[in-house]
Batch of 2 targets.
Target 1
Amino acid sequence: MAGTKKELIDKNGVRLDGRKWNELRPIKLQVGIMKNADGSAYIEWGKNKIMAAVYGPKEVHPKHQVLPDRALLRCRYHMAPFSVDERKNPAPSRREIEISKVIREALVPAVIVEDYPRTAIEVWVEVLQSDGGSRVAGITAASLALADAGINMRDLVVGCSCGLIGEQVVSDLDDTEDKEGNGDMPVAIMPNLGLVSLLQVDGVYTRENFQKAFELAIEKGKQIYQMQREALTTRFFGGEAKTTEVEEVAE
Amino acid sequence: MSMMKKNYVVEAIRKAQLLQLLASGKRLDERALDQPRNLKIETGVIPKANGSARVTLGNTQVLAGVKIATGIPFPDTPDKGILMVNAEILPMSSPYAEAGPPSEDAIELARVTDRGIRESEMVDLTKLGLIPGKSVIAVFVDCNIMNVDGNLFDATSYAVVSALRTAKMKKYVIKDDKVEATDELIPVPVEKTPVSVTIARLGDRLVVDPSAEEEASMDMRITITTDDDGNICASQKGEASTISPEQVLRAADTSISVGKAIRAKILEATR
């Protein structure tokens, strides 16, 4: 591709890791992996390794934060110091604070918070190893953890990040593509309701490319949703969690 | 970012009233749904800064100041200058703002503003390199939110763009491998004019440039930044609610068209 330093896509449209423009990295999902948490999930997505745990509904402390008509959903997205190339300071960065906020805002619409007034539901997302798309992977795991905790939900939430390499729209950016590419667009959807609960965009998109990337993210999200269903089925009806090979249809 | 006192009863009554008005296509302040509030831009208000702008959008007021110095480049971009945009919601800006460490809302505001400027490639950072790996020009834009009346995202973004467009910096020369500042003043290498447009959803209606009262009742907000060519270069959906794919695309088209008119105003004010 013209304009990109490392030739992230070759002449045949093959990306550095061998994927086509619309392929996903391998994804592995496991539900109910932690003893103490009310609900938990683990996701491996490319090189991402992320755990999500849910506690609650529980009493709200401090009490002035109580919401009289619904549950308070707390969310923390945190990266382990060893999750990235250079050690990350364990204190929450501004980036992590913002991501915690957008993850919370992506999950709340799916939780029937009105069913649990005056309580707190805590969602902890811990990135053990990070690759591109850790926030959408975190959301995908967190919504499984919420379901595992038996919390009433309208839908699952599933995310996928699409973006640009040069002027080519691609799905599911990895770390290198995120840093060297020309745009990143994380999207989270509630697949059964057909609604978007997270949308962030950076890069320079023509109106056409914007729509193409956005719609591709939704399409890929629906595909990952099938893996979420499978992981929940495995959790509650037995069997080993397995890596789902994604069948791809190239352009 | 409502910065309004949360009062459940008043909020519910006010929201019902707003939705009723919106059902007949009207807003509290009689604006059209896609009509931003009056925008006033004053530049050069802080002579000690390299560039500055006071932006008044309705009753929301933001002051942006640019300071330029030399700095050490980031290891992954040894030949590129540094651009940092930050925003602080002053405790004086609203009866509900507080002093102390920045809130989640303030951090989001600063980061979304920075992203819009950075991703549009408004400032050509390749023209701010001095000695590769050792010295570059660093441009800091700091924003003070002086008065809160909704839509801090857009007001802050307009203030940053206006301040950068009118900023002057010293011309630096390299003598014997050392950077020296000259007395000559040159403009910052500005290439584009990104314009942020924030749209709120109340019930099933999308309204441009929400006031604080509208923000207190909104379900969802989306900020979309576009550039001179009508490209989309940054976006952020906010609030704990959803948006339909159709509304996202509609919001994108609205941002492009409303952004065009606002860009003309910014260009006029910063000529």
Target 2
Amino acid sequence: MLNTIYQLVRPRQFEVAFEDIALDKEHILVRPTHLSICNADQRYYQGKRSEDILRQKLPMALIHEGIGKVVYDPTGEFQVGERVVLIPNTPCGEDSVIGENYLRSSKFRGSSMNGLMQEYVQTVGDRMVRVPEGLNDLVAAFTEMVTVCYGAVSRFGRTAHARREAIGVWGDGNMGYITALLLKYRFPESKVYVFGVTESKLSDFSFADGTYLVSAIPKELKIDHAFECVGGNAAGQVINQIIDLIQPEGTIGILGVSEDPVPINTRMILEKGLRVIGTSRSGREEFLGVLQLYTQQPRVPEYLEKLIGGAIRINEIKDMEAAFEMDIHKIMGKTILIWD
Amino acid sequence: MSNVYGVVLAGGIGSRMGNVEKPKQFLELGGKPIIIHTIEKFVIHPGVDEVLVLSPKAWVSYTQDIIRKFIPDTKRIQVLAGGATRNETIMNAVRYIEEKGALDDETIIVTHDSVRPFLTHRILEENIQAARRYGACDTVIPATDTIVESRDSAQITNIPNRKFMYQGQTPQSFRAKQLKLLYEELDGEEKEILTDACKIMVLKGVHVHLVRGEVSNIKITYPYDITVAKALLGMDLEEK
């Protein structure tokens, strides 16, 4: 069958391409229904990756956050019409120690293989998880982003020392919002403080125990552990501020992606005996965890609904470009493509 | 009871295709016969209950063989012999539905050229919806070239405003029972002239809704089209 793929061929230009899909007895076909734009997609769309990377990766279909409906399942594991979240990480091997999302051999949709901007996505049962009944489609669409934060919080839970009175989250964007929210539900005894640069955005963190502008942090504030959810050019400044503020032997979780290497105060990391843990992407375990959390704590998806910045119906290529352009100019929130 | 039938029209013998031994729908594209790509689009669409493939009589067994070879689950596919004309072929499909006792007012047929393998899920979905809602629909794209009318092949008789011109593609979808009744009302000569099923509907005053097609939903008719199809698939054009 000739599957239609909407590829980014060069920055700001999508084109249609076709690829043959063989119907066999193992692969399931999913029709994408709701897709969510991530900053990583924007870096390709706006041409913010290096020329070498763009040359190597394009043309490629973008987007790794999304849900769809099962249209064809020869394995009988799923019913036709069932709503599923697609797992973009695609392992090519197994390792008893290293997680599937950290294996260098793994592929990832919208980065090392075509993303979800396709007519049908061909996958296997292991790479999809049922969406719980009643969960808002638009929230379900960005589950993948939540799984990344969930993975960071889980790693933190496994490695950080037991004094967790105050946890700081740097970043007043989507990732900061999700990480702070998950921390609040995972460690209800801890105080969660959020640090950012925009007062109006910080006021959205109603569930946090306190929010502060990075330029006006009270001197007496003590932080046991911290998460960096900023990335980009500001990442260095943020990580260094965390290093200054954090208590000795604290754990710093880094989630923000930076295009260039970031200089950080390693002397103080040594002096304070800090732990720095990076988190990127996620695997099946995190997807199962997040969807279970949505069912057990319905307030979590309710809070996440506030992140829906816009939903755009996509009928043709010019709608795709309009959605990406709109997403660039949003202050906060996720742009969801309703994939017709 | 199933009530949406995909009707894949492979009745033609490809007389326009040049020096090839097989009807054009059996030519290979990306390692598979063109008709298989087309049938697959119908088979995996959840809105289609059964797929009827209308093949030239001499090619029925061959069609069945390649379907078995390439498609793992053939339960919902039925190969039937086509008729002498396009409309007769469609009527063979309707008769099949009638004979199994499944033809009612709600029965929809989505008729599609077997040589248009670039059909998309959206076009199919919108056809089913439009046929349910309006009774009939045709898939079109806005005309890009100016259409020139000439009654004598020598001089222009008319140049219609391009804004109102569209190029017809397929699918064309209908309430099957209504189409059959209208077709049966035609006399022999009308049946000869009315080669397009939508035209029958229009002449009988039935509202035929437009569904937006795609430029890529090409019909593989001439050798040139195979080259275009290969290019759309990103294939090496020298590849056989």
